[in-house]
Design goal:
Chain lengths: 174, 151
């Protein structure tokens, strides 16, 4: 189960939340060597499929927007409160690109669920993911669907997975 | 217990273990998304929140997020932004079922009823890579019939 704060003000430390990681991961993109037989995409970029990318959390204590996260929350009635309709958008400079995540709380009873969308803008193209998370106490880490991409990732399908408090994000592309 | 100061990233595996969907979805486990399947689901709205930074009501630029419980297990979350064109909404929908998630996106032109068919773009778990369509009888209705066509 993954539990981590996304509210640095409330927690007094920088966020290390896996959902934020979706947006703020420092991508160590060892794209090559992850796949099977390569082929050429419509964009003319050589692809190797399937591929698994392993982005990592950025080092801690970096200034916001430099390597760490930069989070904006909205519709929050007070610190630490996330009613339905509230959410956040977070972006992070990553090696060679940027990752942006938006999440909106959908409900709070009986479980808190939130809808999220993430785009990883990487040197070889963009990867888009959409999905749903909840905070079920006996749940697990989150997996959302890759719904598409551009460039080397044109037409990409797969999943983005966070595992417990592991700083790695796994993007598996079919 | 929900801790409002914290988001907990937990997704669908809880549903995998705890919920049973009375639907014949066994064929969807190929993870190829190529098997044609039609699922008919019934949902009941659990939460609807209008996000109205551009003024009260259904003003352009406002959005809403709704969440519905799916009979048999799972839920549907939808986030829609209202356009300048009357009744036209851009929506992203995720259907979380015991065997995985399905995410889709599209436009409804009959808001605020928001019924119609949008594209399913991808999924996770048993629906990994799935494509198809999602038809709803009304995204904002208290009771909603969903038809998922895969493949």
């Amino acid at each position: 189960m993954v539990r981590a704060a996304i509210d640095p003000a409330a927690t007094g430390r920088r966020a290390a939340h896996p959902i934020l990681v979706l947006g703020m991961a420092s991508l160590v993109l060892a794209v090559s060597g992850c796949g099977a037989a390569p082929h050429t995409s419509k964009a003319g970029v050589e692809l190797a499929t399937p591929r698994t990318l392993h982005p990592n959390l950025p080092p801690e204590n970096l200034p916001p927007g430099v390597g760490g996260d930069f989070t904006t929350t909205y519709r929050r009635p007070g610190p630490g409160q996330f009613p339905p309709g509230s959410g956040f958008i977070v972006w992070n400079l990553v090696q060679g690109g940027v990752a942006v995540t938006q999440c909106v709380v959908a409900r709070v009873h009986p479980i808190q669920t939130f809808w999220c969308t993430t785009t990883y803008s990487l040197p070889a193209g963009q990867i888009d993911a959409v999905g749903d998370y909840d905070n079920s106490p006996d749940g697990d880490s989150g997996t959302i669907a890759v719904v598409g991409g551009t460039g080397a990732y044109l037409g990409a399908r797969g999943t983005v997975t966070t595992i417990d408090d592991d700083p790695d994000i796994t993007i598996h592309l079919k | 217990m929900i801790e409002p100061t914290r988001f907990h990233t937990v997704a669908s595996r809880r549903g995998l273990s705890a919920l049973v969907v009375a639907l014949a979805v066994a064929g969807c486990g190929s993870s190829q998304g190529s098997v044609s399947k039609t699922l008919t689901l019934h949902a009941r709205r659990a939460s609807y929140t209008l996000i109205d930074p551009n003024g009260p009501g259904l003003a352009a630029g406002n959005s809403f997020i709704s969440s519905s419980d799916v009979a048999g297990g799972g839920h549907l979350d939808a986030y829609c932004v209202l356009s300048e064109r009357r009744g036209t909404e851009l929506c992203t929908v995720t259907l979380l079922l015991p065997r995985g998630q399905l995410s889709g996106q599209g436009v409804f032109v009959n808001g605020p009823t928001s019924s119609g068919t949008i594209a399913l773009l991808s999924g996770t778990g048993a629906y990994s890579g799935a494509v198809g369509t999602l038809t709803t009888s009304g995204l904002t209705a208290h009771r909603e019939t969903l038809t998922v066509r895969l493949g």
